[in-house]
Amino acid sequence: MCSPKEYQLAHIPGAINIPLFNDAERAMVGTTYKHEGREKAITQGLELVGPKMAEFVAEGKRILHEHQAGTLLCTAGEVACSKSMATLFNFASIPTLTITGGYKVYRNAVQQSFANPLHLIVLGGKTGSAKTAILQALQQQGEQIIDLEKLANHKGSAFGQLGEDPQPSSEYFENLLFEKSNN
Q: In sequence order, which residues have a C-beta less than 8 Å from that of residue 20 and are 6 or more positions away?
């Protein structure tokens, strides 16, 4: 429930975004908040969101059906719009839960997890020495592995990003690493 630009920067891995505002609308509401205050920004946001409410409900139902999920999960917290969306979805008979504290609480957990000591075995070697194949074989044998190059959409120093999707932001890479290390 963040703007497309915010979602692209970072989000909880696997999350599907239903943006309340496009990037221009979010900037406009943020500017209003900064220069004219909270009340004016809320009114402006409601004017922008109101006509889209039926689309949000349809999208929520589509996501539940497509992913065969029983419940939507919203990241509610300081962001009133996420709480409002959860209320809207529940009103429209779409079962919805919220993450209290929202994405900020998730990010704090990610960052705190990196302070915990880990027992790691690092696989190193020259370019082309089949490190990825070894990792995949270990994973097939039930070992927990983390392929950092895969998470980063990068093939290392020799081949870099050749043929890969764009690299994730540092924040999103941390989220991916957190999820992978906790599976």
A: 1, 3, 45, 48, 49, 52, 56, 81, 85
CATH-assigned architecture of domain 4-111: 3-Layer(aba) Sandwich (3.40)
Q: Which residues of the chain have pLDDT under 70?
A: 76-81, 155-164
The CA-based angle 15-31-106, given to 5 degrees, is 25
- Cβ-count burial 126-135 (b if 16+ within 10 Å, e if not): eeeeebeeeb
Using CA atoms, how far apart are residues 168 and 152, in angstroms rounded to an integer? 6
Q: What is residue 48's predicted lDDT score, i.e. its pLDDT?
A: 94
Name the token pair of 66. Answer: 């497509």
The residues annotated with a catalytic role in the active site are 74
Domain ranges, ordered by start, for the chain = 4-111, 117-181
Contact 39, 47 (CB under 8 A): no
